[in-house]
Amino acid sequence: CIYQKQEPVNIPKIESETLKQVLNLPYGFELYSLLTRWNPLNIKRPYQKDDSNYKILVVGQGPAGFNLAYHLTQEGHQVIAIDGLKIEPLTHKFKAIKDIKTITSNLAERVASGFGGVAEYGITVRWDKNNLDIIRLILARNTNYKLYGGVRFGSQITKEIAFKQLNFDHIALCMGAGSPNIIKLKNNLARGVKQASDFLMNLQLSTPYKQNSLANLQIRLPIIVVGGGLTAIDSATESLAYYPLQVEKFLKFYEELLEQNAASYISENWSEEESLIAHEFITHAKLLRLEKAKKNGDVNALLQKWGGVKVIYRKALQQSPAYRLNHEEIEKALEENIEFRANSTPVEIKLDKYGAAKEILVKRNEQIEALSAKTIIVAAGTKPNSILASEDDDFKLDGLYFRVIKEDGTKLIINANAKKQFITCRNEENKAVSFFGDMHPHYFGNVVKAMASAKDGYPIITKELSKLPRNKIKKTDFITTLDQELKAHIVAIKRLAANIIEIIVKAPLACKNFKPGQFYRLQNFETTAKSINNKKLIIENIALTGASTNQKEGTVSLITLEMGGSSNLCKYLNIGEEVVLMGPTGTPTEIYKNKNILLIGGGLGNAVLFSIGKAFKAAGSKVLYFAGYKKSSDRYKMSEIEEASDITIWACDEQDNLKARRADDFIYHGNIIEAIEAYASGKLGEVKMPLANIEHILAIGSDHMMHAVKKAKNQALKQYLGTASAVASINSPMQCMMKEICAQCLQKHIDQKTGEEYYVYSCNNQDQNMDEVDFEHLNQRLKQNSLQEKLAHKLIAEFEYKQKNEA
């Protein structure tokens, strides 16, 4: 029954085909939905049990999370699920579904809801992800289930808030895998090098592959994928599929601009390198267009001619995890002409004259060979997501994983006997926290094991709940409270300067937990985003620091600089519109008591320093503040800056007539470094806070500005400064902002004593040792999508110009 003459029967394929046939029947979805609620073959629980009114917080809606949510609702418990990713609202009306096609869509046009965690962004489109929407709809129909997206456990909700303020009875952590393994080789994070989790999350959730999307993700051929697991194979097939879509969209946007503008206008701010890349993209797109017009055109042959995609693995193909776990994925990849090079160990990444990857050196059969590679995707596995252990002392680690405790609270050694043990801690009221899926030492590694953890673990949760008194809060009242506390809505949008706007968002728990220096992730929803010129104005993940909060109103003030792309789309948000405001995230700025502090803010960086300066002053410290601007019109909220400082020096590159409003403040015409030097030397007037007395320096601004401060601190200003510690708030490119998940924000450091390189996740800790930050690396990372960002900026400017004329 299992084996035929040659190859094994493909049981998963048979099961999938059965499901597909049922779903395609008239009211097939309803038949399937019924069987999820009533299963006569389940002797213990043939249908959903009576409501228990116990309230469970399930953190994460990946395979472990949504399976656990299903089992717990069937047990009669009320499940509130949260996920740090954006969860698009359901557009389906709750009525009987006769035809499955009414709730499914073409995968190239499907709205990526984020539901399903890694199943949403880590599984190739070869699989029908409409099935994720089916799972979600089945759960959403259950009155015991409610899902909130853009909510990070440890940010809006903590263990204390969940148990004490919101009155949950149990917390189940299904937070999946954590930080990727960073392989050690020279230039391992140069421009053009991406971690697989970063690439796949960006591709699937920001949807740059959609022809009406302004989202950006630049890759160039040839592509090398490092790794031998299923994620490596996924990255290879997805990058090969995405490249033609990317260059075709680039050409489409370029031609749209050419209709009304000269080519010189479109490319006026392109660098030499960007011009070369644009020529490459346009040439490739035109050749693809011609090839597709042929009767028997061969697009794949063109992609191979341009270098194609290769997967390199340090061992034999048969030893790779992908081969052992699912050889069919490798077969499909080989059918697409993806080359698999076994026994190849990466040694070094070589860079071109612009600082981007051009080739990778590999050791194969004791020989070093160079492989051309303009894009390198690293899929070297991940660690469990245990970041909570650094945020809450109650979460203890046993090696890489959370510890497991017995019912009496004593530690249980992680071994085979602990396989079906899931409790990691309890509070004084005996409310417990459990963990599942990739977070668990016995269930990590794949989707099936994650699902198994949920099936094995839900009876443990029910047993834990039976020890607690029944929750008396009504389901409807509970949901009303959570809606008020967790949902985020736009309250106001104010223009502060020509290209600076303030966004005020009502999000009570996001507001309540904010500490100076932390930031948020702002997004809108694709389903509610405006469209202009057939372009969806989808705001990609933007990191915005909280300028201030109003605890009474539950609002957060965010200030953004319009630099093109998503930052220019914020002004199109409507008052009352629901948005995603995930956070606060990052590490709060360390506030010193009774010290002399030097704050250096450049442009938008000054918005960050409002709350930080006030916190220093409240702690008894003295604050000397240098506020730098390019133009006088860039200044805003001057009173707030004055409130955050004892002495302020206003530095402006262009001449203006501004006068100091306080006796000890000064005005300087020139850049901020010159202003600091002029103040220190006494050229501006009496020096009431000498730099020699400064004990701590904090700089926030552009990468160029912070780099200049670092150089000046050790050169031009060295004679004035004492032994002050110095940190810079690093503005790395960011994506998930959920602390050590996607690796987009990795920042290179160089140890001053040993000269060794090490890396810091900027979304976890943005305030970094200024002297050890490699600012050239930061500059390169910030330029990874610069060409596409500049083209998007021109497109936005074009339709804004048209709108203005029409008005």
3D shape: globular
Task: Point out poorly predicted stretches.
Answer: none
- Spatial arrangement of strands, main beta sheet: 32-31-30-29-33-34-37
Strand content: 15-25%
Report the CATH C-level class of the largest domain.
Answer: Alpha Beta
How far apart, in Å, are the first and last alpha carbons? 71 Å
- Secondary structure class reads alpha/beta
Number of strands: 37
According to CATH, the homologous superfamily of the largest domain is FAD/NAD(P)-binding domain
Oligomerization state = single chain
Task: Give the tally of structural domains.
Answer: 4
Mean pLDDT: 92
Binned, the helix content reads 25-40%
What is the overall number of helices? 21
CATH second-level architecture of the largest domain: 3-Layer(bba) Sandwich
Kindly report the CATH topology of the largest domain.
Answer: FAD/NAD(P)-binding domain
Tell me about this structure.
There is one protein chain. By secondary structure, this protein is α/β, with parallel strands linked by helices. The protein folds into 4 domains: 17-41 and 52-179 and 383-473, FAD/NAD(P)-binding domain; 182-380, FAD/NAD(P)-binding domain, CATH 3.50.50.60; 487-585, Translation factors (Elongation Factor Tu (Ef-tu), domain 3), CATH 2.40.30; 596-736 and 743-773, Rossmann fold (3-Layer(aba) Sandwich). Helix content is 31%, strand content 22%. The chain is built from 21 helices and 37 strands. The strands form 10 sheets. A 7-stranded mixed β-sheet has the order 32-31-30-29-33-34-37, sandwiched between helices. It has a 6-stranded mixed β-sheet with strand order 3-2-1-4-20-19, with helices on both faces. Strands 21-22-27-26-23-28 form a 6-stranded antiparallel beta barrel. Strand 29, helix 16 and strand 30 form a beta-alpha-beta unit. Helix 1 packs across helix 2, helix 8 (230-258) packs parallel to helix 12 (321-335) and helix 8 packs across helix 21. The longest helix has 29 residues, at 230-258. The mean pLDDT is 92.
